[in-house]
Amino acid sequence: MSPSVRLQEMIRVIRSARTQCEERGVIQKECAAIRAQFRQADNGGRSHNLAKLLYVHMLGYPAHFGQMECVRLIASPRYSEKRVGYLGAMMLLDEKQDASLLITNSIKNDLSHSSPYVQSLALCTLACMGSAEMCRDLAPEIDRLLKTANAYIKKKAALCAVHIVRKVPELAELFNTAARSLLTEKNHGVLHGAVVLITELCERNPSALPHFRKIVPDLVHIMKGLVMSGYSPEHNVAGISDPFLQVRILRLLRILGRNDDEASDAMNDLLAQVATNTDSSKTAGSAVLYETVLTIMDINSECGLRILAVNILGRFLLSNDRNIRYVSMMSLQKIVQTDHNAVQRHRGTIVDCLKDQDASVKRRALELSLALVSAANIRSLMKELLLFLSCCPPELRAQTASGIFSAAERFAPSQRWHIDTALHVLTTAGGDVRDEMVPSLIQLITTATELHCYTVHKLYRALVADISQQSLVQVACWCIGEYGDLLLRGECEETEPVQVTEDDVLDALETVLQSHMSSPATRGFALTATMKLSTRISRNVDRIRSIVSIYGSCIDVELQQRAVEYNALFKKYDHMRAAVLERMPVIDRSSPGHDNGEPAVIQAPDKTKNNPVVTLTQEPTNQARDLLDLLGGSDEPAQPSTVQPAPAAPVPDSGSAGGDLLDLLGGLDSIPDPSVTVYEQNGVTVKLRCDRQTDVGVTATLVASNTTDSDITQFTLQAAVPKCVQLQMRAPSGDVLPARGAGQVTQTVHLNNPNKVSLRMRVRLSYCSGGSTCQDTVQVDSFPASASH
């Protein structure tokens, strides 16, 4: 291929290359020829060579050696060369290149050129790659061109002004007057540029909002003309008159009407007219209606208008286009809290979207369905959600189960219905249930005293049928251990009578202990349940003793420790086994000691309520001292101590074998947990708790919770400290913040401060809420006092 081939011929040769190596050879040969011609002083084909070089650049090959040629062509008096030079500048130069500063003077001269086409070339280049310095130098020229009589130049100048405002926000006030005057133009291109410019001015400079709110009547007049105008071939798109301009105007109205009653009232009639007269059968009409809905919901609109907007979104749910359905549910999710009743009218359509084949549509339909649950529709809507749980994709099962648990906890019509729903979830998706749901369900079961027999029978049947669902197995083992005597009686009137023997129950628990599907935590539940049955049955105590002794040499340390302690109860402390393994009292979940599944204080009458201080001076009884030995305590008698009792501390019966021990432990919950709130936004709260503090270090825990109605995912915490302080961060407890404070995420940090400088820490949060990613940074300048200082 000769060096002087035309652009079309070069493209044909490159495309005909059979291998990448052959293509690279052709391009290298042509680039060498272009370089040689660039070096010639008088070259009439410079624009053709630069055009070929731009094509090479588009293919991804180096073309930086053509930057100076762009500068020369821009300075040329010929339009054909200027056009290629400006195109090359937009493609090969950016604001970081020093060569871009060389064209500033050429652009300024061309902005004053007599030809509007040369002016447009300069405007396009400045709007594409103008640096902050170029924008400051040329901003007065752009303001002058905004007032010219040529509509073509006005349109280009308006878009160039948008770029200047983004690059140098302090120059925004320069264009306020000119931007407002552009709204009197009839040319749609100029109007579009003016609306975009005013929108940018309002977003970058909120102080300009009062100035531009005066143009709301002008915008309403322009919008009405577009809505009511007849067919115009020049602007018609699928039966909608210039939908691009309509969308831009609606977005600007949304900004101007936000938190302003006067501006909102001026556009209410227009929004109602657009909502009723726009055809939604085509994509263009749907886009206009969607922007109308967003504007109605964002301004101080009338109640009837908001209902009309919700109905439009309801019509979108019936569309065959999945994108429109997805957008509709996203919008309904944002307004369901403020217009709950209006969204409820479309509940059936939303539930039908759970059957959609698209995973993203299913996810949005699930979130919206959970948000629509109320006390009035809990039964009917929960049937649909449970049906969806049985067939939903694996990636949605955990979110569905969590949402059902949360909704049932808030709106359950009865305790039996609540328990039946929770057990249905555990049976269907027990492997996907979060860990904190197990203690939550156990707490529910303990409070429903009249349903203990019914619950233990139902859980036993579920355990025998399937031991693969770990959460279900854990709850079932706990209930069998607590209420095994009710199961053996077989006197439950609410279920079919089933005769269960002691051997049957122990066989079921032994199967759980030996199953390869059981996790260490599940085996711990089963072993404790087996041990508790030793006080509830009479004929198989020896079998229980043998089962427990087997696990005294288990490889799992936690399980081994439990088995050793239980063996000690059998051998050395058998006289107090019945007292230690007696049935658990009702768990008070609202007490300070119960948080996210942690043990709660016992709900019992507080006989020391009127005594502010209790002095314990007596020695523990022999049985209580034996129990202290079992738990690793000392043989020394207890020293006199003064303990502040907890508000809900238990007062055990004096005849109980471990009563004195419970007295010794009473009141520990009254110790305050010093913490400070370091972050509280978007429903996310992060508290800093100081666990241990020494002269040269601090151990603290960051505790995050979520008060919104949906789970927050991908939650991460990062911390930074001064160089003279050493930071160690342990692994977080999780990355999901359950909705409505159902759980927490904790992360422990240790700060080593050998130089004893003032401690400061910067914490960066990142999380995903409502489909959008949020990042924030907070500064911690002081740490709370430690309880163990």
Description of the structure:
This protein has 789 residues and is an alpha+beta fold. Among the domains are: 133 residues; 106 residues, Immunoglobulin-like. It has 34 helices and 12 strands. The chain has a 5-stranded antiparallel β-sheet with strand order 5-6-7-10-9, with no helix packed on it. A 3-stranded antiparallel β-sheet has the order 8-11-12, with no helix packed on it. It has a two-stranded antiparallel sheet with strand order 1-2. 36% of the residues are buried. Belongs to the adaptor complexes large subunit family.
Question: Can you describe this structure in just a few lines?
Answer:
This protein has 789 residues and is of the alpha+beta class. 36% of the residues are buried.
